[in-house]
Structure formats: structure tokens, C-alpha cells
Amino acid sequence: MGVGTNLKRLRNKTKLSQQEIADMLGIDRNTYTNWESESTDIKSQYIPKLADIFNVKIQDLFDDEKKFQINNFENKDNATTGQQGIVINITDSETAKVLGSQLEELIKALKK
């Protein structure tokens, strides 16, 4: 998750529009929209102002709040086996331990 996703999440949490934030920063709405979509980088002079608007620390604008992500996949390259599965991306070691334990318990329960 990038800074644009964090900006959008924080903006939605505060119920501010892109135009309202752009006005607070004295910039064009398209400039702010490009930051959320990560089409352009945020100029460093606006980072402290964004943190103030959202009432967060500067680091919170860049932190990846998402600890893990689960995606389904199907192997379309090998149509004869029809392989399917799940990919789990974990970015936090404590979350990995908890999820691993929970998966072990689930597998044991399924074997019964």
C-alpha cells in the first residue's frame, strides 16, 4: 500500500472531499487526485500540511497499515491441471505467527 492509498483512506475517514483538501493546501484538485492515484509524487513542502489536515504523524502518511493480503489465483497456463490456490502476503512478523497458528488449528480441525 502506498502513500496514495493512505491519503485516500485518511480522506475518507475525515469525510473531506479531494477539492476541500486541495483548497486547504492551495493546490489544484487534479494535483491532489494525482497524489492519491500515485501518478505523481507529493512535493515535500505539502507533507507536513497533509499530516496536519488528517491529524496524524508524518510517518502515518507512509506506513503500510495493511498487515496481510489474501488473493485467490488460478493457474491458467496449465489448463489440464486446473490448479487453484491462495497467495497470502504478510508484512508483519507478529501477524504471520498468529495467522500461522490459526491455519494450523483449522487444518487439524479439518482432518478430524
Automatic annotation (TrEMBL):
Q: Is Hydrolase among the key words of this record?
A: no
Q: The HTH cro/C1-type domain covers which part of the protein?
A: 7-61
User: A Pfam family name for this chain?
Assistant: HTH_19
**InterPro entries given for it?**
Cro/C1-type_HTH, Lambda_DNA-bd_dom_sf
Keyword set, alphabetical order:
DNA-binding
CDD domains, alphabetically? HTH_XRE
Q: Which domain of life is it from?
A: Bacteria
Protein name, entry field: DNA phosphorothioation-dependent restriction protein DptG
- The signal peptide stretch is none
